[in-house]
């Protein structure tokens, strides 16, 4: 994967990256057993089969239809597979497997769309810049990152598919025998007051989604932050102390969600005969106490209240991850060198997290560990537009549909986040009651 994709790559580089991203999602679908294509592993989401058509339909609708004005590839499928769903507290989808086309029809559509798009994109005359209604580099970056984001969110979805309904890739190395992480001493690190840069400036030779603009600066007073992400072991103490039973630790909305859904534990945990286990992507193992705990925003917030702290704001996260004593901010927590495998667990290296503190090479200037990789980090900041936000005219709802006060910004990256999205300005977001995300957290004291 291209690790420095914030620059606008050349035409050929973009086509190589598009091909790489297709390989990534093709490989991902191969872990689904043939009899599970029409399963719905997460009740709030579409069946798996939707996504097989969606990635190609999105590319066609964006590149061929919107950007080049070439019209539909397939009247019905272009629309059927156009949009995913993200209901907040709404009803669950009720469609049946028989409501969807046969897999052979979807595969034929995918193949045709790819061939036609490749023909268009490799034909220099047809593809001349004057024909594009929007800048070609931006459109192709949107297609590539959209697909890689789905490579991650599909991993959350397939994580919930029972192990017997999927096939581990040949490269998969079982976790059961994996060694424990380095010994850690939970501690907080004092971060002095300073100014952080949020977002990126328009007009520079770099790609960002609509929500990453416009660049602006925020003063952050001094605070202290956990050196490590909260671990399964720490969260177990919260559970044993009755954290899920103590209404005072939860907001009204979060408490109502717990009651309604009967949430009693992190989604990735399993209890068997009084012992805790972890549901990893392809296997179940005794709960790894030194791995970061993956929980919803509601659960992370309750834990933070339990320990008398809070979740960091988006600006505090930036200060802890990218700030330095000299006042100059870094491109990445460790410096300006592009991401590599020694800096953290990201870019599809693994399917599951590693023990916190396993990547000293990825520490921030203050010594804060794992801010990039090993799980997104929840912030207390509702997802909202930056000053002078403008939606992409070709994808107006990408961010704007979620500026509703019910979604929260996540920063950092998970083991399944593509390298091109490790840029400082990248913002992810999810609703507070969605427990399936590879999302960790750490706390701050103000
Ligand atoms: Fe999508």
What does this structure look like?
Helix 2 (48-67) runs parallel beside helix 4. This protein has helices spanning 11-29, 48-67, 75-80, 103-122, 136-159, 232-240, 252-261, 297-306, 314-322, 397-400, and strands at 188-191, 194-198, 216-220, 223-226, 269-272, 275-279, 284-286, 375-382, 407-413, 428-431, 439-440, 444-445. The strands form 4 sheets. It has a 4-stranded mixed beta sheet. The protein has a 3-stranded antiparallel beta sheet with strand order 1-4-12. A 3-stranded antiparallel beta sheet has the order 5-6-7, with no helix packed on it. A hairpin with a 4-residue loop joins strand 6 and strand 7 (284-286). With 446 residues, the chain is of the alpha+beta class. The two termini are 38 Å apart. The chain is built from 10 helices and 12 strands.
